[in-house]
Amino acid sequence: MKKQGRLHDMFHPSDSSTRTMRDLISGTEDLLRSTASYGGSEIEAARDKLKQQLDAAREQARGWERAAWDRAREVSHATDEYVHENAWKSVAAAALVGVLAGMCMMSDHSRRR
Q: Could you tell me which residue ranges the DUF883 domain spans (predicted)?
């Protein structure tokens, strides 16, 4: 799997805050479409203000997404660099974590008997 694909999976919009934001934007767009036939200066002014706020929210969400991607790239690059520079330390740490996880699983398994 490519590094870009892993980053995409890591930051795929699956968390609840992202879904909530997308649902809010979608609902606001639906509201704007459904009120398009209504007239009056107050409704027009409210609709224009809502459109501006919606555009600002979209732009802010894009900024958050860009910042998250940039940060993920930095972390990925730093991790990759560290592992290459400290390959044996990384292998030893992974082995230690594996041994500890195995011991925990065996301990849990023996308690169940």
A: 21-63, 79-103
